[in-house]
Design goal:
The structure holds 2 protein chains of 2 kinds. By secondary structure, chain A is an alpha/beta fold. Chain A folds into 2 domains: 11-50 and 158-351, no CATH class; 58-139, 3-Layer(aba) Sandwich (abc type-2 transporter like fold). Chain A has 13 helices and 5 strands. By secondary structure, chain B is an alpha/beta fold. Chain B folds into 3 domains: 2-101; 105-321, Rossmann fold (3-Layer(aba) Sandwich); 330-398, Alpha-Beta Plaits (2-Layer Sandwich), CATH 3.30.70.100. Chain B is built from 12 helices and 20 strands. The chains are: A alpha/beta, B alpha/beta. The A-B interface holds A 1-4, 6, 10-13, 15-17, 20, 23-24, 27-28, 191-193, 195-202, 355 and B 158-160, 181, 184-185, 189, 191, 193-197, 199-200, 204, 207-218, 221, 235, 251, 255-256.
Amino acid sequence: MSEHQQSSLRYSPLWQLTVSRIREFFREPESVFWVYGFPIVMMVGLGIAFRNQPVEQIAVDILDGPHAEVVEQALGSHEKFVPAIHEPNTAWRRLRTGNTDLVVEVDSSASDRYVYHFDPTRPESVLARSAVDDTVQRFAGRSDPLQVSDEAFEQPGGRYIDFLVPGLLGLSIMGGGLWGVGFVTVDLRIRKLLKRFLATPMRRTHFLAGIMISRMLFLIPEVLIMLLFARWMFGVINYGSIWAVVSLIIIGAVAFSGVGLLVASRAKTIETVSGLMNLVMLPMWMLSGAFFAADRFPESVQPLIQILPLTPLISSLRAVMLDGSSLGSQWMAITILCVWSVVSYTLALRWFRWS
Amino acid sequence: MRIAFNPSLDGTGSLSACRASRNRPGIGSRTSKLNEFSKQITERAVCTWDVCYAGRRPPRWSPDCLEYRALDHSRLSEYEKAIATVQEPMLRPRFTTPILPVSHMPSAIRCSNLFKTYEGKPPVEAVRGLDLDVREGECFGLLGPNGAGKTTTIEIIEGLLEPTSGEVEVLGRAWGEQNENAIKQQIGISFQETKLSDKLTVAETLTLFRSFYEAGIDPEQVMRRVDLQEKAGSWVNKLSGGQRQRLAVACALVGDPQLLFLDEPTTGLDPQSRRQLWEIIRSFGAQGRTVLLTTHYMDEAERLCDRVAIVDRGKVIALGSPHELISGLGGEHVIEFTLDGLDRTQPDAFADLPAVSSAHAENGHILLSVSEPHQALPALLRRVEETNHQFTSLSTRHASLEDVFVTLTGRHLSDEEPDDGP
């Protein structure tokens, strides 16, 4: 009736713990959506909304006056301009509300004096000023000494979607580490399952290793789906080494699993751990450069931003994927992530509440 | 009723009394017959008896039987002779293990002077000086109301809680780093409430627990033992309460333990599930292994346990087999009655009636511990008539552990512990 075989894989506790964790995850449809589907949804939504398009037509208003038609004619011969003559009040209103990008005023006393009214904080307005000036000057007889021709650069890498994908990848890894490791642990603790396990000869290291290994395994399809989808839908290419990207992902996943364990080490209720997780994640969502460059924040906050774990992960992923940098060049980011790993695991294991 | 003797191949046997009848008379008449029978043949060597539903027998037999445990195997032949002389042809006796008297077995669990105080304002003294000595092979019960400290005690013995002071030894070893793994390999534990992973199947859960032990039982076999083999592929969250509890016990059994800890195993279950669980626990004990369980149900303690420690407010207030504890009341019957009119009836007024060993009042009822109801009852009726009162209610029943508890503490097992200090 009793068996005394130990060697079969079926009865290896580490295997069973890992497999159980995998089963529990995939049998919960909501968690599968949040982990795999949500980043895709974000990517599609943001990628479409912020898609780079060729410059639209430039609206230019010309103040009504004797020489207005000359300007209108000069601009009208080019497709990209939409010139219109308006009364001054109408024109100022249109400039203020952004319906027009530039207002041209011809000096009534000297027909070769133009005044450009534009909004220096709006890129379209600045662009309109340069383009209009160029056209009008040429029309008035300027000759350019150089021969120039235009070639459109079609290679992807500078678009918003290229910038976004490494950011979403980083967020995905962070979310998986915090919710996938931390939340699950608290849930087990609350259900007294942790305590039940401890009543058996199960080793604690096996338990933690099972969670970590299963997290790593979940990461693989997560990352693959994201990168393949980005490639297929938006043409996002990885310019660096795929192994560099993989290494960074692994280092990031380990670090965030540690942070997740640390956050969950003592929480006793779902509310507590949810609050803590959000407290940890939301600043990084904003500050770490996932959706827009981190250096847009003022200088005084930069040191803090740079040591948050998500920032080096995202910046190093961008460097590799967009700039083609080598793994070695990212040693600073890797070091920061490793320090986070070591500190998190050490503290988590010391403070961990098993029941 | 007929007695039959069924020896088994290894020299033990079982003694049971069954009534063959199409119509089932009330328990009382059967039990009284069996009581007479027990007095005739079993003498002092039998330590426990209980009435159990043993399941379906050949259709002529009703499912009620009385099981006796012969703890002194050397006297088996005396019993055989006694049985042969008894005039009741329809009882079928069955001896059950263990073979040695319990007092000769080594200790499975020993604790001395256990104290546990939880910090807080005010600090909570859950366990106040508790001693236990559980022998190998016995089913030992901790019986007490909610809050008595039973769960705290059993968790300390299971090694999950540190006592404030006191010593604990399980299977001859004290809890500590070098012994921890060795002890855990030999014990199985079931908590009062565990929610196992909802989305794992029964088979997967048992395989997971089995993997923690160096040696154990095949999950399929354990499933059969607890009658869950049909649900092997069902998710845990689709099981009923009784099935979930059986699964919890199965998880405790899958490591083939020598010692089983059960904390309130049948709380909240329907009667059918309770009986199923009792059968499982009984068959575990029948292998000569030890069980320590906590409960606040007196019928559970009476049916399952060889010995019971009644625990109240963190201390053991009585210890012995259910039979001994009930006999300690001075009578195996209880007469309970209320009288009209009198606001404060003095129970002492009835304590001197024949065959009454003690009397006390509770909630307006008077309870008399009686050894021979047929003598006490008529005397009581006469006395009440003399005092010109009327009965508003009158009942007699068998004494139970509940009565033992009430006698000792003045409260019921189903009451919560009061919050005041010792």
